[in-house]
Amino acid sequence: MPKGGVNAPVPVAASATPAVDPRLIVRQEGVKGYLIEFRRRLSSGELGSVPVVLALIVIWAVFGSLDSSFLSAQNLSNLSQQIVGTGMIAIGVVFVLLLGEIDLSVGSVSGLCAAIFAVLNVTHGVNEWVALLVAIAGGALVGLIQGVFFAKVGVPAFVVTLAGNLGWNGAMLQILGSSGTVNLPGNDIVSRLYSTIYGQQAAAYGVALIGVALFLLSSLVGARRRRAAGVPYRPPTDLVLRTVALAIIAFLAAYTLNQYKGLPLALLIFLIFIVILDFVLRRTAYGRQVFALGGNIEGARRAGINVSWIRISVFVICSTMAGIGGLFLAGQIQSASQTSGGGNLLMNAIAAAVIGGTSLFGGRGTTWSALLGALVIGSIQSGMNIEGLSNAIQFMITGAVLLAAVVVDSLARRTQKAAGRA
User: Fold this and answer.
1) Per-residue model confidence (pLDDT) at position 222
2) Contact between residue 360 and residue 406 where contact means Cβ atoms under 8 Å apart
3) Domain that holds residue 326
4) Does 250 fall in a domain?
């Protein structure tokens, strides 16, 4: 019995150190504190986007050294358009992975929505905007159906979406009919959304400037609110460093795009979706509930979170984004066919989310993971196409990169558990 009776406090181990908010370290130590906190995060397994950024740098360096055309403005501009379809689908996959679940139907759903638009607009002459909205609504309905089976009936998400992968593919074939292919005229809304490029240099630089300004404004407002509430906040030097880093990346990207044709509308829409859904995840009560559910479902339930509603809504978002991605893919090839949503699209979408840093175990990831992962996969495919390598080699290397990402995620999770942070 501890000295002093049964109610005496038990002494804390000397090795235990209280968690310190990183903003306090940065505020007290400045740049040195930022480096200390960064080193602490890496040593405790909180890798963030560091592995995928390093991988992207290595991929670009290797292919750039093999063929200088890989880093040309034309190839990078084309790459920024080509990743949009898969990237849109990957955004939805991120939401499902945050719950620690999986959706195997996103490829078939993307093909189904493309078929709905093509048949309504081209075959039946329905107004293109109406056809577009119906196609997207069709994707949302698919997510609602699958979410209800998962959240209400209790069928595992793997089984529900695997069945959906087969069923929605059959629905797509039925909608397309005996011809099997519906060609888009090229001047339809879907084709224009993909192919439109703003040639004025002010467009790309303006978007870069707006993005940096919004980031700085959001950071300043957040810091002021935290300061007023008496909680740790990021000091001005930290905000300046982050803003300068973002500005360099944004204006360098804008400069590269302007060296070819300009700002692709598809890329702009992709970035808008990323920013809006990132805000939903990080700045709203709904987003916090999604993370809470992915981190500890029983704890979330006891905290009063409507688990069924969150699960259903996440699958609705995933299927809706799959439908939007399918429309961009249809606009890219200007058709909807029996092969839409097939091939390696499903694996690429899931791989993009995982490679970008979203954990397969749930509770960790951002919508920016979709952009980073899609860039990695798209860069590998683009570089190998330039080098004339076969699809077989591309599949093997993409698979190896995916495995490496999962291994890094598993090791990081193990390190976090050892550090008491998982």
Assistant:
1) 82
2) yes
3) 48-199+261-418
4) no
